[in-house]
Each structure stands twice: as C-alpha cells, then as structure tokens.
Amino acid sequence: MNITFELNGKIISAEVSPHQPLRDILRSQFDLTGVKVGCHSGRCGVCSVLLDGKVIKSCLLMAPKANGRSITTIEGLSINGELHPVQQSFKDNFALQCGYCTPGFIMATVDYLSSSPSNPPVRDEIKTAIKGNVCRCTGYEKIISAVSNAITSSESL
Amino acid sequence: MSTSFNSSPNPNDEKRSSLDAVGHNVVKVDMDDKVTGAAKYGSDIQPDGVLHAALLRSRHVHAVIKSVDTSVAESMEGVKAVVTRDQLLGQFDDRVRYYGDVIAAVAATTPELAIKAADSIIPILESLPSVHDPKQAIRSGSPKVHDVNNPDFGQHGRHEFTVDNVEYVQNIDDYHYVHIGDVEQGFLEADFVFEHEYISPRVNPCNLDTHCTIAEWDGDTVVFTETLGAPSRSRDEIADLLGMPHDKVRVVMPPVISSSFGARSVPQLSFEPVAATLSREVGGSPIKLWFDREEEFTATDHRHQTSYNIKMGITSKGMITAAKIDLVADTGAYPNGVGHIVLSNGLSRPLEIYKIPHYEFEGVSAFTNNLIAGEFRGIGSTQLGYALESHMDEMARRADIDPIKFRLMNFVEEGYARPNTGRPIESCGLIECVERGLSTFKKIQNGPSNDPEKLRGWGMAAGTHTTGLGAVDLDSSEVKFILFPNGSLVVEVEVLDHGQGTDTVMTQIASEETGIDISNIHVQHYADTDSADAYLGSVASRSTYITGLAVQDAGRNLISTIRDLLSPLYDPGKIEDITITNNTVSFGNQSVQLSDLFDESIISIGFAESELNPPAYGAHFAEVEIDALTGHVTILCYVAAQDVGFAINPKMVEGQLEGAISQGIEFALRSEVKLDRGIPLNPNLADYSVISAWEMPQKLICEIVESNEESGPYGAKGIGTPAMPPIAPAIINAIRDATGIRFNKAPVESEHIAMALLKEGTNQ
C-alpha cells in the first residue's frame, strides 16, 4: 500500500506493507540509519522518532499508521549544518560513548523540552523523561546532565 | 605515594597545569557524527547486492542430527543458498550442544525471506542426555558435552594442563591450581576461620547494537566487515576455526566501531563461519548476518556463571593467615579461550589486593549444555571481586571487626611483592581510595531511617583488575604518525574506540607531545588486519596504558625527526623546545614552515612494551534503602573512589565509572539470563532486566585517585574493567547491613529479599 507523510519537513510517499515497522521503512527506503535497531520490543529506544512532535518507538509503529502524519528523525534536527541545542548539549556534556543510543535519547529530550519541563531542572523528572531509553555505556549520569543543561540554556535563549 | 585529583593541596595540580592537552576534559573527538545520526555502524552498511542470512537454530540442548529437510527453502524464489550444519566451514559435527546451536542457514534477497526460508527447514533430531550443573558435569557419570577434555577449536590461550583433582575427570575446558605456603598450617594459625559459597549470575553484555557481520570472498580470502575488539587475534581464531591459513582471513572495521564490553573480543561460533560458508556458496558475494535480540541472548557469549567457595582464616586482630578458594565456572557448550582468563584472574586477583601468606586456589571451567560463556567487562575479576568482597565483609562482621579496618590492615601496598609473580606493586592508591571515598560518602549518606518499613544500610567493597593482559604477560603496541605539510597529523593505532574514548586519549597525548592542536589530529585504526599484525586491540583496559605509551613515543620520535631536518639549516644549539602549530614549526625564538622542511609527509613510528600490567584499584561505597514488605532496593547514594594512576581525561574517567556502576547494579540486583535445563526463559529486553536511569543511585559521586604509575603514560593506568569488581559487592554488603542477611547468590532480586525477611521475621 502507498502512504504519504511528512518526513523531516518534506512530504513524501512510500510503498509499504501493512506489517512493516516504520523503523524499517525509514532505514531501507530513505537511508535514515540514525534510526537504530536494538530490540524489536519497544524497550531499548534506539529507534525513537517524533510523531507529530511526540517521541515514539518506530519499531512498534506499523508503517501505514504514519500516513498523513509528520515524522522527524535525528537527521531532521540540525539545520544548515548547525547542531540542534540538544545535540550540542549532549556533545558538551560527554553524554555519549558508543553513540548507538544517542539519537533515541536526543529525540526523547527534544520531546521533553517541548513539554514545559521544570526549570530549574528536576532530576527525577528528567529520569522519567528518558526512562524509555537504554544506554549501556554511560550509566545515564552525563545524559541527565546534558538534558538538564539543555533546559537551562533553552531558558536563556 | 598516592596523590589525589580534586582535593587540595594536591601534588598533581602542578603536574596538570604543566600539561596542555593531557589531564584536561578535552571534548570527545567522535561526537559530531554520533549526535547527528550520521555515524555508520556495521549494521548500517548495506553493500550493493548484499544477501541476508538467517539461521535455523536448535531448540534441543543436546541432540544428534538425524536428517535435515531443506527442500521447501530451496524451492523458494529469492533464496540463493541453503547450507546444513555438515556443510559449514569449520568444526561442526552432527551434534548440537546448546539451545541455539546451528542446524542450517540460508541466504536470501531480503531478511524477511531468509527468516521464512530458515523456518521452513525441517530437522529430525534425536535427544541426548544433557548436563547443566557444571559441578556435576566434571564428575564421572554425567553426559559428555565433548568427547575429550580441552578440545581444540582454535581458541586463544588454549594450553595443556594436568588436573590434580581426581574427582574432575570430564567436560573440562580449563583447570588452574596454585598452592603458596601451607594453607593447612595457615588455618591452624588462625583464631577464626570462616567458609562460604558465592554464586554469580549469567549475564549478557546487552550491547544495543547486536552482532552483525558482512562476509565476502576475495579469491581464496574471506573478508569480514564487523567490529572485533582484538582484530588480529580474532583473525587468527577465525582462521583456525575455519581450518584456513591465517593470511586467508581479513577483518575490516566498519566506519564507526560498536560497543563491546568484551562481547566483541572473540569470534562467535554460529556467526563468522556461517556467514563465510553462505558467501562461498553464492560465489563470494557479500552476506549480511545480523543477529536479532533473541539470537544475541542465545548465541553470543555471556559472563561465566561461577560458584566460588572461599575459606579464610584470620587472627583475633584481623590479619589474614590463609585462604583457600575453589572456583567452578560454567563455560557452556563450546570453548573460546575465555575460561582460561576467568580462572587465571580468579587465581591472581586476591593476591594483588590482599596479603595472604598461605594460599591455595583450584579453578575449573566446565562444559555444560548451557549457553556459551565468554568475555564481559572484568573477565573473572568481576565474579571474584563479588565473592571475595562479600566474604571479607561477612568475615569481619562475624568476627566483630570493622569491615573497613579489616581491609585496611590486609591491603597490599607499593613495593609489596605479590607471591604469585614475585613482582612488586608499583602504584597502589587503595588506602587513599578508602579514605577519600569514605569521607565523601559520610558527607552525602542519609543515615538510619525512622520508618520501620524502610531498612537502610551501607557497605563498601574494594577491588582490583590489572591494566592489560594479566599478571605476567608481555604486551606491546606500535603506532604510526603521518605529518603533512599543512600541519595535520594522522595517528594510526591498533586500538578501537568502542566509545570508551581511546581516539580522544590518543589525540590528547599526540597533541601534548608535538604541540599540534587537537583539531588538526585525526586518529585512525589500522584499516584492516593485514596492516595490524600481532597487536591486541581494545581489550583488557590496555589501550590508554600501552598504546598511550606508543603514541607518546611516536610523538617524541616525530619531534626528533624534525630536529634532524632542521639541523643542516640552523645552529643545532638553538634547536630546542620544538613545537608544531598549524603549518609551522617553532623552536627557540624562530619558526619555519613545515613545507620548507619536507614535501609530501613525514612518518614516525612509536613502540611500547611492558610486562608490568599494573593493577588498578577502587573502593566503592553504597547506601541502600529496602522496602521491608516488597524487598525493593533503592540505592540512595554511591561513591566510587578509583585509582587510575593519572586521569588523562577526568570526565571520560567518570563516564567509565558511571557506566560500570550501571552494569554492576544489574549484576547485584537485576540481570540474569535464566535457564531451565539449558533453555533460556528471558531472551529479550522485555523479560531480561537492563536498568534505566531510574535504577541508578539517587546520588552518585566519582572520586578520582591518582597514584602516578611510573610505567604508564603521564602516570596513567586502566579504568574500564578495573571499575567493575567493587560495585556488586558494595551494594550486596549494604543489603547485608540493612537486613542482617547475607545473600550469596546474585542477582539479589526483591522477592529474594522479601522472602528472606519474611523468614527471619524481621518485618513483623
């Protein structure tokens, strides 16, 4: 079946089959390999994308459900080569090591920042915002710092 | 003399301020591609015309293959190759030995089709008796997993051994024994003797990026594109596994290296040989074999499940007189050389942290029909650390001695010659780790709870792991610098940046030695195994130490080469303090363009070798709060004081510690691949617990201790694996403090605690 949706700001069409996860379409048809593959069960969060601005696991969304919706992947965040403030904050705070989980965490953080987070930041609130994403390298501490600093610097903009 | 990093006054402050690039929080050099999603890992590669592989795996834990009907798969359109176990390159006989062992494999045009075709294959298997308890497996009468002890699968570290124990007769992967002094005499000298058993969990590293390889043939050479942490050793192992000459196998790294934690340090039996065979079947075209999460759990290596029995004697004052340690490790169904490391590290580590006058160790790694065990962060040391530090804590409490004082009076110290090697310890920050860690911990600790349903307690554990290969092995590293006239420097190293930060560390050291700005330095790993003979890669926390030394050497050689180029042109007496800035060399008060000295590029080689493998130490402190009704454990605060010799990049040292703590919490409280007679019950991330940010300590502080290891670059030694051993026992000792109950089987899950509390009646 054919679906039409907005992908990183552009309206596109794709031929999909009903049982295909959105994740696999984004990777195989659009080469958006920043959308990672980890668990096929929604736990790890490496495939997180924004659906109409809210973070979802693209392994759990069947492709036809994207019809008429707006999808943003990690590749759609930076504009004209400038890092998005959340990307910059992850970079500044040593918030990644192997980097495989990073796109997912960044998408979850972008969603969280758009939902009026407490400022000054609240550690437990940040933990809740990122609890659907797994990181095997960092122990989350520096990710929490990155999210926290993204909140405080967004206020100063 | 140990020195510290962020307390004052601090002897290392002066050292740090005299350094420009090393010792500072230089931003990781690999960030941009990773935050934008541009980073291409092995699983992101999709060569033109690539075919996808899928396996039919055994659902029996031990069986003989009678027949395999592949006719349906072969008739499917888009299926390009079907191979059965007997056709696989390598040592595959007609028996499957674990749940997940390979029966057949297919290659097809899409991953979905490959899975469908593999599922259509009908195997007829005849079950054999199986064995799942390693202690039973090694005794006569149990089913044999392999017909001989110590079978040769090309595994590294394989060595001949004699088993001294008459009860251990079969299913033996490896065996280590040592007796120093006279333990029976040592126990006679003791005022208090205590013996206990500790069982560690079978856990999976759970790299988010599951195993993926692309295999293809270039004539009679097979080429694998995948992350392998020790590429040239793995090349040899794969060749031996396939029965091919070493130079007919190449391993090429993908553009971005995947995380490993040891999981990618050795090849996997149902992985590289399967992909290689399928590719050969289709005339050498590329085959992509990418494990899904269930395969990652069933067909890649786990940390060895171990049983440690420790008997220790102490005087009334608390001095250790003797220790006798028995270890049985579960290797699972096939050897890979890692059983050897589990045993040798289990044997050595106690002697690298405590003075034990009389010592006996016997360790055996056993074949069972369980999942295969292999490398995972702190091989053997993590299990030993958990067992030994649980024992030290329990022993002290039972003898009514303060657990911390008990450790302090028995710690090794600088200059102490370890009885297993006779070699003195060069740097040891143990005491400072305890003092600084405890002082910080006291400041943030919550203390007792007023709520009778919330049990609070705290505990500590020390730990050690060597930097590098082991107690006595020689390690070496070679690096290559290529300097261009525009001032950019390429640094070629054999170690891989799995994310732990070696590219950044090497950049910092190269910059420190040459003056070249960080932004003009590009670290590359050798492109493939053809150009990286004999060096080991990123394993055993060796990179910063041994490759860091080689980078330091290459930097000095580069400056020396430039001095040689300047000598004919300038008064040699005035060529001093050479430094490179952009495209200019400065010395004395003069400067010259690099392009005036050479045309295309100049090369310098750096080399380092060491057999010291200095132990790195840590002392960790945990405070827990336990819900008396549910047994749920909250880690209120945690302090990790870790002696890294010298922190080349303090923020990255913290990152290593914090990441280790998440994995240590899993070991202590959460994670275990549960087997029912060899069949995994939870091979997915819904049922197997990996922790999220929520399960991390509410407060976490890292204290970096710097003992200045003289043999290391700028005083540095390892961090990645040495961070692991103290974590689980610190938490479990805190649970002991809170509940009065010693849990000797990890993970200590909430229902275990709740049931034990119920039994003790302490929550009435």
Description:
The complex is a heterodimer of chains A (157) and B (764). Chain A is of the alpha+beta class and 157 residues long. Chain A is built from five helices and five strands. Chain A folds into two domains: 2-74, Ubiquitin-like (UB roll); 85-155, [2Fe-2S]-binding domain (DNA polymerase, domain 1, Orthogonal Bundle). Helix content of chain A is 32%, strand content 15%. Chain A has a five-stranded mixed beta sheet with strand order 2-1-5-3-4, with helices on both faces. In chain A, strand 3 and strand 4 (54-57) form a beta hairpin. In chain A, helix 2 packs across helix 5. By secondary structure, chain B is an alpha+beta fold. Chain B has four domains: 43-128 and 219-290, Alpha-Beta Complex (Aldehyde Oxidoreductase, domain 3), CATH 3.90.1170; 130-210 and 291-410, 2-Layer Sandwich (Aldehyde Oxidoreductase, domain 4), CATH 3.30.365.10; 426-473 and 612-764, Aldehyde Oxidoreductase, domain 4 (2-Layer Sandwich); 474-610, Aldehyde Oxidoreductase, domain 4, CATH 3.30.365. In chain B, 27% of the residues lie in helices and 26% in strands. Chain B has a seven-stranded mixed beta sheet with strand order 4-6-2-13-10-11-12. In chain B, strands 1-31-28-27-19 form a five-stranded mixed beta sheet, sandwiched between helices. In chain B, strands 8-17-16-15-9 form a five-stranded mixed beta sheet, sandwiched between helices. Chains A and B meet through helix 2, helix 3, helix 4 and helix 5 of A and helix 2 and helix 16 of B.
